[in-house]
Amino acid sequence: MQRRMSDLAFQDYYPDDVSHCYGCGRLNEHGIQLKSRWDGEESVAYYTPKPYHTAVPGYVYGGMLASLIDCHGTGTAAAAGYRAEGRTMDSQPPLRYVTAALNVNYLRPTPLGDPLEVRGRVKEVKGRKVVVEAWIIAGGEVCVRGEVVAVQLPEAMRQS
Ligand SMILES: CCCCCCCCCCCCCCCC(=O)SCCNC(=O)CCNC(=O)[C@H](O)C(C)(C)COP(=O)(O)OP(=O)(O)OC[C@H]1O[C@@H](n2cnc3c(N)ncnc32)[C@H](O)[C@@H]1OP(=O)(O)O
C-alpha cells in the first residue's frame, strides 16, 4: 500500500520530554534534528553534514553517519509500531523506542558537502521490537548500510 508523505515528520510527534536526543530531538538546538517520513513502504530523511563533520578532508565522519542510521531507524521503528497497532502517531499512549542494537557498514567513503538521503525499510515488527534496515545515498551511490533493532522501553523504565 502506498502512503503519501505527510507534512509532519515522525520525530515531530515525540513528546517534549523525549525530544532532546542529539540525533532526532526537535528541542536539541545543538543536534541534527533529523526528520523522517514515509515514502511509500520505505522511509526517508535528508541531511547535509556540516564542514566540521569530517573524517578525513572531503569525507563524512563515520560516527555522524551511524547517528543518521540510528535516528532514522528508531524514528521509522516508532512509526511502524503505531502503524502495526492501527493508530496515528498523535494517539495515546506514546510508544517510546530506544536503540537496542546498531550495526553499520561503510561501503565506500561518503563525500562531505552533498545532501545525504537516508532511507529505511521495516524488516520485522514483533511485540516491543522493530527491526529496520537503513542505508545512506550520496551522489546516487549507496555509501552506508545498517540495521537498527529498536525496542520499546519496558513500563518500569518510562518516566512518563
Ligand atoms: C509519538 C511518537 C512517540 C515516540 C516516542 C519515542 C521517543 C523515544 C526517544 C527517542 C530517542 C531516540 C533514541 C535514539 C536512539 C538512542 O540513542 S537510544 C540510547 C541508546 N540506547 C539505550 O540506551 C538502550 C539501553 N538498553 C535498554 O534500555 C534495554 O536493553 C532495552 C533496549 C530497553 C531492552 O531491554 P528489555 O526491554 O529488557 O529487552 P527484552 O525484553 O529482553 O527484549 C525485547 C526484545 O528485544 C530484543 N533485544 C533486546 N536487546 C537486544 C539487542 N541488544 N540486540 C538485539 N535484540 C535485542 C530481545 O531479543 C527481544 O526480542 P524477542 O525475543 O521478543 O524477539
UniProtKB/TrEMBL annotation:
GO molecular function: hydrolase activity
Location, primary (coarse class): membrane
GO CC annotation terms, alphabetical: cytoplasm; membrane
EC top class, as a word: hydrolase
Membrane topology designation: Peripheral membrane protein
Pfam families documented for this protein: 4HBT
GO biological process assignments: fatty acid metabolic process
Catalytic activity, as annotated: tetradecanoyl-CoA + H2O = tetradecanoate + CoA + H(+); (9Z)-octadecenoyl-CoA + H2O = (9Z)-octadecenoate + CoA + H(+); dodecanoyl-CoA + H2O = dodecanoate + CoA + H(+); decanoyl-CoA + H2O = decanoate + CoA + H(+)
Keyword tags: Apoptosis, Cell membrane, Cell projection, Cytoplasm, Fatty acid metabolism, Hydrolase, Lipid metabolism, Membrane, Transit peptide
Record localization: Cell projection, Ruffle membrane; Cytoplasm; Membrane
Protein name: Acyl-coenzyme A thioesterase THEM4
The species this protein was found in: Oscillochloris trichoides DG-6
The organism's taxonomic lineage, starting at the top: Bacteria, Bacillati, Chloroflexota, Chloroflexia, Chloroflexales
